[in-house]
Design a protein that fits this description.
single chain, alpha/beta, Isoleucyl-tRNA Synthetase, Domain 1, 3-stranded antiparallel beta sheet
């Protein structure tokens, strides 16, 4: 906008056209002296109210400029006048729309929305007229969209056969390659509204459809896990397991980020953040590590309900953020949500920001980051192998050991601790002293975790011994935690007999 204003010439607001909004000026026939007054404008205003703006062209001069108004203007009643033939520049006309549209108590519209070409048109003329009249811009923010071209950046043309009909995208018509529904179009718009050239084509629409399908699968998985969950039995955040509280921390950051993007009308960033969060922290991380706990723990156990509570919050908050972009999908999810009383997603409000912020735990997040660093080392070593095929011996000292011990505080050897769930082996042993004997079949991985304290960076080394899982395969949880091959592990046995009398 600044560059457009800097290069703008002086504005002549009159145009010589036979159509448009007339400039209500009369000219004395003999001298060509212009005449306009408050009385003449008021009289014309009443005529326009009654007959419309075409009255300027259809009525004769005696009706438009009565003798009484001529006399009040200092002319004789028989002075001859002719109507002006100029009209207002259409940009002055449309640029003054704020005067009619905005209520008296509202100085600025929240948003002006138009194509990028309007930086030299409506956006600019609205700014000039409003600043000239009121010394304030008529809008708080401008949103400019680009113009649609095909996938190769070419202008759409019937002769080129590259026109995409929105109705075909939604309904399919006779084109079997389309028919994705309105949500795909909305996803496309949200992802492309900041671009000057908005690309569209069959391959792009298919890609967006597949992106939405991934979102749908994650939401379906979450709904399935909530089938037996009761909201009044949810676990408060401060009572959750560390990895669950960490996920609530990530969810809090995600919500704040997306709300800020919505406030700034940065819809592309909302969609990209949604996609990253759903495919990353929500699905690839949290749903993956808690799958065993959801499926195999005792149905009413606190640990399982802790995971269900987190998954409820993930589904609930993702739906709220997703709803403006994908209304049909989010309403469908609401229909099948186990808590029918929640109703339509569009009748609900944002979760209070103070509640969202209470989920944050930066100190815990720092601890988990150390563990995720160790997990990366473990996964890099085993490559495509299943981590459950291994047992781990983790040796650390100092600050790092204290950090890890807080995530496996009750036992140094565990198959169910937060550390074990995040790293995903069958069993893990946490040591503060190096092992006396290293098994022959063990693979040793060394690494460093960095800590910051008082502005200084400290390095804590760790040793990871990766050995084949020692236990037998439990046929229920599929982890190598059974004492005998034909028996279930202790946890699964307890889960199955829980509640027996």
């Amino acid at each position: 906008m600044h560059s457009k204003l800097d290069s703008r010439p002086y504005w002549c607001i009159s145009r010589q056209r036979s159509w448009g909004l007339p400039i209500p000026v009369f000219y004395e026939k003999e001298t060509n002296q212009p005449f306009i007054s408050k009385d003449s404008v008021q009289h014309l205003r009443e005529l326009v109210k009654k007959y419309g703006s075409d009255c300027w062209w259809s009525m004769d001069i005696e009706e438009l400029l009565p003798k009484s108004i001529r006399e009040k203007g200092g002319f004789r009643s028989d002075t001859e006048f002719v109507k002006g033939s100029d009209i207002l520049d259409i940009w002055f006309d449309s640029g003054s729309s704020w005067y009619t549209v905005l209520p008296e108590n509202i100085k600025q519209a929240d948003v002006y929305l138009e194509g990028i070409d309007q930086f030299g048109g409506w956006f600019q003329s609205s700014l000039i007229t409003s600043v000239a009249q009121r010394d304030i811009a008529p809008y708080k923010k401008i949103i400019a969209h680009g113009f649609v071209v095909d996938e190769d950046g070419k202008k759409m043309s019937k002769s080129l056969g590259n026109v995409i009909d929105p109705a075909n995208v939604v309904e399919g018509a006779n084109d079997s390659d389309l028919g994705y529904g309105a949500d795909v179009l909305r996803w496309w718009v949200a992802l492309s509204h900041e671009e000057s050239k908005v690309l569209i084509g069959k391959s792009l629409l298919k890609k967006y459809y597949e992106q939405i399908f991934k979102v749908r699968k994650t939401l379906r998985y979450l709904l399935g896990n909530l089938a037996d969950f009761e909201l009044d039995k949810r676990i408060e955040v401060h009572e959750m397991l560390p990895q669950d509280r960490y996920m609530m921390h990530l969810l809090s950051e995600f919500i704040e980020t997306c709300r800020a993007f919505y406030d700034a009308h940065e819809y592309k960033k909302v969609v990209l953040s949604l996609e990253r969060f759903i495919n990353g922290p929500a699905s690839a991380f949290y749903c993956r590590i808690t799958k065993d706990r959801i499926y195999c723990s005792s149905p009413e156990s606190k640990d399982r309900r802790s995971a269900q509570t987190v998954q409820f919050h993930i589904a609930d908050e993702v739906l709220k953020i997703l709803a403006p972009v994908l209304p049909f999908l989010t309403e469908e999810v609401s229909l099948y949500h186990p808590f029918d009383k929640l109703g339509s997603i569009f009748k609900r409000t944002w979760t209070d920001i103070s509640v969202i912020q209470s989920w944050k735990d930066d100190r815990l997040a720092e601890k988990i980051q150390h563990l995720l660093h160790i997990r990366d080392s473990f996964n890099s070593f085993i490559a495509s192998e299943d981590p459950v095929e291994f047992d781990l011996i983790l040796f650390a000292q100092g600050h790092l050991f204290s950090t890890l011990k807080s995530l496996q505080s009750y036992e140094l050897h565990s198959a169910t601790s937060p550390i074990c769930e995040i790293l995903q082996p069958s069993n893990i042993s946490l040591l503060s002293k190096p092992p006396v004997v290293i098994p022959d079949e063990a693979h040793v991985v060394e690494g460093v975790c960095k800590n910051k304290e008082n502005g200084k960076v400290f390095e804590d080394r760790y040793l990871l011994l990766i050995v084949p899982a020692e236990g037998s395969l439990c046929e229920r949880c599929r982890k190598y935690t059974s004492v005998k091959q034909t028996e279930l592990c202790l946890r699964c046995s307890t889960a199955l007999t829980d509640g027996w009398e």
